[in-house]
Amino acid sequence: MTSAKDIRPRTDDLAAQAQYLSTSPSASFHSPSSHGSALTRTIPVANAKHLKPFATQDIKVLLLENVNQTGREILQQQGYQVEFLKSSLPEDELIEKIRDVHVIGIRSKTKLTARILKEAKNLIVIGCFCIGTNQVDLQYAADQGIAVFNSPFSNSRSVAELVIGEIIVLARQLGDRSNEMHNGTWNKVSNKCWEIRGKTLGIIGYGHIGAQLSVLAEAMGLSVIFYDVINLMALGTARQVDTLEALLAEADFVTCHVPELAETKGMIGPKQFEQMKNGSYLINASRGTVVDIPALIHAMRSGKVAGAALDVYPNEPAGNGDYFNNELNEWGTDLRSLKNLILTPHIGGSTEEAQRAIGVEVAQALTRYVNEGSTLGAVNLPEVALRSLTMDEPNHARVIYIHKNIPGVLRKVNEIIGDHNVDKQMTDSRGDVAYLMADISNVNAAVIKDLYERLESLNSRIMTRILY
Length: 468
Prior knowledge:
Pathway: Amino-acid biosynthesis; L-serine biosynthesis; L-serine from 3-phospho-D-glycerate: step 1/3
Structural class: alpha/beta
Strand order of the largest sheet: 10-9-8-11-12-13-14
Mean pLDDT: 88
Number of helices: 14
Distance between the termini: 25 Å
Protein name: 2-oxoglutarate reductase
GO biological process, one term: L-serine biosynthetic process
EC number: 1.1.1.399, 1.1.1.95
Domain ACT: 398-468
């Protein structure tokens, strides 16, 4: 564990700080696709000033579920106290752990419910080292002023490549042939084994993953159609269809890439299987609740669906082991008995490249929030950012005031900071929560303390942070 640097309020010269590199959230690489992945790069800002939080002891970070080393190293290099665990924690243990941490990093197994977050008195930010954020109570976190960041782009390619592989494996019945060979059976057949060239791929959800998959599929000779709830620009020769029914009726392969919402729960059920072509294939690498599994079992047994690949499930084990059974999901045995069925343990984004990129992307977002207050990329708070302070601005402080979005707040805040020179200020709201950031010049530790205490006393306050 790296020793934490002193970040307590100081009475000495505020300018006595080392020079650090600052990450520019806008400096990103984008693929030719407007939906493509973005890899955040660290850009050195000349003479950048490293801000520290006022009225906060050493920043404590808890990382669960074997967050990639790249992310751990970025956080450790900041001087934070980083505790790393390879697994998730039971709820009661997590409540004990989370009480004194300022930053928590999780993946998909850890559930941060309102009950858990209620105990996290020091928590200011959550990092989801994955695409999804449905494991976090986002509204409760926002109401407490806790920012939540994720990685919406970094594993898109990994998931898209997995789906391409599964399309070929299903079309050629490779899983069954492999299992037969492992059991000593030689079964050379071509019946109902197909090339994918010239077939039609139907993509449900044309976001980052769906668009990447579209490009790869076309390169392999597939015709691509897609359905999305909003109109999107198609890549290549892909074509958007107006309804889910139209996609199901035309596609030879159907693949799901949608978030977990009330509207997507059971999105593929008995009615949708009936609408699919006879002998078509289904792939789900999105969320486990999207596909009605008993309906899939029936469709495969009847021959309506010739094969399927599942990477996600309604209930998933909290850790590795012999847990994928009927106790977890009552249909487990029936599902495992099917032919030409690929079952994988939620590994769509589990590649070295994806996990490294996710580690960098989320860890940098966390450090930007802790050190600079930037909420760019936050999924539950307004997106607000100011340019970095520099070493030429030694006696400056950055005021961050997260508050209830009610009338009169800005007047009261500006009455408090108005006696000082406000160099720059920005505010935005999202629902019932608003986020204000202002840089104030010519202040010392006594002035900062006074500002902090006066802002904390306001009835509209959700969270006050002052960085200097």
